[in-house]
């Protein structure tokens, strides 16, 4: 495609959109939605500001509520340093991911990127990993929603009933076919999670714990320390959705602006929230931190957080459905036309995403622990490690092979370090998560499936 002139390229794109050219995988340089001028359903309508709101909604959610507890385990200084460092690191990996998307406009999701770098096996591994991670994120958020509803209702309803109610609401919100139709509720969600954190800080400040213990550092063994820092590590998880978001932008070249807004907001917000809550509550702060607040403040904070849990869960369910939908219908008119098959498949996929998440969250006693393992296996790579592969691949194949890698010593070194960091987070995170499950079983702390 690089050798075709503009007119020829337009012809190829139109042929793909009209199904005369089947999608053959990475390398054809045609973006997933093609020329949308004549399409009934148009995907490429997001501005970078709305993408930033969706990124904040997706990433700055329940993760922030674990940070004060992590600070209590390792101390304020190492936790704060790690939070800021990981925010900067996530901005760097976002830049590598966005550059890869610009170089390969046909990439719609991590599976497409895996195909480019590692062939059919890479596509399946990256696709399945993305789907599993999205489903577990939905499950974690419907559980958070159920917990918020329990607090707001003073446990007035059965936990299973609350889980059903919240799951049904998540399914309904996930139904729009394009992310632009979710972007305005995403903007609302981003505002509400900010208010949730602000009310939590005010509640902690107004009800500080007498005699609280606040320390700069806490000596711990590797297991306890890394278990605590998984909170900051995975609070930035969510890069696996960036390809999907950028694919629906009007101007993909503006994607880095959204990444700057995301990381600037999330890093600052995480640092301030964790320090303030820990400073006023001390070493007894719970995870999630809102449970350490007096009942009235916990209700106020959870009420605002509930909106974010709902919308974020819907975005993850939408993404899980779209990963499969695009894989099945890419290059066909069902993607962009209101067909019975297209809509029935889409609704079915959204329902399946939430239904599987509901079953896992309600029927698996160790689901919350499995979420930690899932984050370790996939988020460590999608948010951090795989970005190093993106840079190495494009530098080798687009800039001049091994000579290009040798000339760009700093970039090569950073990319290799990024891959190694992702590998370390994956292995260490999986180890501590499995050990945590074993310890919980030994202590009799593993719960039972929800019952009324």
TrEMBL record:
<comment type="similarity">
    <text>Belongs to the amino acid/polyamine transporter 2 family.</text>
</comment>
<feature type="transmembrane region" description="Helical">
    <location>
        <begin position="414"/>
        <end position="434"/>
    </location>
</feature>
<feature type="transmembrane region" description="Helical">
    <location>
        <begin position="301"/>
        <end position="325"/>
    </location>
</feature>
<dbReference type="Pfam" id="PF01490">
    <property type="entry name" value="Aa_trans"/>
</dbReference>
<feature type="transmembrane region" description="Helical">
    <location>
        <begin position="258"/>
        <end position="281"/>
    </location>
</feature>
<dbReference type="GO" id="GO:0016020">
    <property type="term" value="C:membrane"/>
</dbReference>
<feature type="transmembrane region" description="Helical">
    <location>
        <begin position="46"/>
        <end position="65"/>
    </location>
</feature>
<keyword id="KW-1133">Transmembrane helix</keyword>
<keyword id="KW-0472">Membrane</keyword>
<feature type="transmembrane region" description="Helical">
    <location>
        <begin position="346"/>
        <end position="367"/>
    </location>
</feature>
<feature type="transmembrane region" description="Helical">
    <location>
        <begin position="373"/>
        <end position="393"/>
    </location>
</feature>
<keyword id="KW-0812">Transmembrane</keyword>
<feature type="transmembrane region" description="Helical">
    <location>
        <begin position="156"/>
        <end position="175"/>
    </location>
</feature>
<feature type="transmembrane region" description="Helical">
    <location>
        <begin position="182"/>
        <end position="205"/>
    </location>
</feature>
<feature type="domain" description="Amino acid transporter transmembrane">
    <location>
        <begin position="45"/>
        <end position="434"/>
    </location>
</feature>
<feature type="transmembrane region" description="Helical">
    <location>
        <begin position="225"/>
        <end position="246"/>
    </location>
</feature>
<feature type="transmembrane region" description="Helical">
    <location>
        <begin position="71"/>
        <end position="92"/>
    </location>
</feature>
<feature type="transmembrane region" description="Helical">
    <location>
        <begin position="125"/>
        <end position="144"/>
    </location>
</feature>
<dbReference type="InterPro" id="IPR013057">
    <property type="entry name" value="AA_transpt_TM"/>
</dbReference>
<protein>
    <submittedName>
        <fullName>Amino acid transporter</fullName>
    </submittedName>
</protein>
<dbReference type="GO" id="GO:0015179">
    <property type="term" value="F:L-amino acid transmembrane transporter activity"/>
</dbReference>
């Amino acid at each position: 495609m690089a050798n075709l002139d503009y007119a020829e390229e337009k012809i190829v794109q139109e042929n793909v959109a009209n199904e005369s050219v089947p999608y053959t995988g990475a390398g054809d340089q045609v973006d997933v939605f093609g020329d949308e001028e004549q399409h009934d359903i148009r995907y490429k309508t997001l501005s970078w500001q709305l993408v930033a709101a969706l990124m904040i909604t997706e990433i700055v959610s329940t993760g922030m509520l674990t940070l004060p507890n992590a600070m209590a385990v390792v101390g304020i200084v190492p936790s704060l340093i790690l939070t800021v460092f990981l925010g900067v690191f996530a901005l760097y990996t976002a830049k590598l991911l966005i550059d890869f998307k610009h170089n390969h406009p046909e990439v719609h999701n991590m599976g497409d990127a895996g195909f480019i770098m590692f062939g059919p096996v890479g596509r399946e591994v990256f696709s399945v990993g993305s789907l599993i991670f999205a489903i577990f994120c939905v499950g974690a958020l419907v559980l958070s929603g159920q917990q918020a509803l329990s607090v707001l209702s003073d446990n007035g309803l059965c936990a299973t009933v609350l889980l059903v109610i919240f799951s049904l609401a998540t399914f309904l919100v996930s139904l729009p076919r394009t992310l632009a139709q979710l972007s305005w509720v995403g903007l609302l969600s981003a505002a509400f999670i900010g208010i949730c954190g602000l009310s939590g800080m005010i509640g902690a400040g107004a009800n500080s714990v007498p005699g609280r213990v606040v320390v700069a550092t806490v000596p711990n063994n590797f297991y306890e320390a890394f278990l605590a820092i998984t909170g900051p590590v995975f609070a930035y998880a969510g890069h696996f959705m960036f390809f999907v978001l950028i694919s629906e932008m009007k101007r993909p070249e503006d994607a880095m602006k959204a990444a700057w807004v995301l990381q600037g907001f999330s890093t600052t917000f995480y640092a301030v929230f964790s320090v303030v809550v820990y400073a006023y509550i001390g070493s007894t702060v719970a995870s999630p931190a809102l449970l350490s607040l007096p009942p009235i403040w916990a209700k106020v904070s959870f009420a605002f957080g509930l909106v974010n849990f709902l919308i974020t869960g819907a975005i993850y369910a939408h993404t899980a459905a779209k990963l499969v939908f695009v894989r099945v219908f890419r290059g066909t008119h069902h993607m962009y036309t209101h067909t019975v098959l297209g809509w029935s498949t889409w609704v079915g996929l959204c329902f399946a995403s939430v239904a599987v998440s509901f079953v896992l969250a309600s029927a698996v006693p160790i689901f919350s622990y499995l979420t930690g393992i899932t984050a370790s296996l996939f988020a460590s790579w999608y948010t951090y490690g795989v970005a190093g592969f993106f840079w190495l691949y494009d530098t080798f194949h687009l800039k001049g092979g091994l000579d290009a890698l040798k000339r760009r010593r700093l970039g090569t070194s950073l990319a290799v370090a990024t891959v190694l960091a992702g590998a370390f987070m994956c292995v260490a995170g999986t180890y501590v998560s499995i050990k945590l499950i074993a310890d919980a079983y030994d202590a009799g702390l593993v719960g039972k499936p929800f019952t009324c």
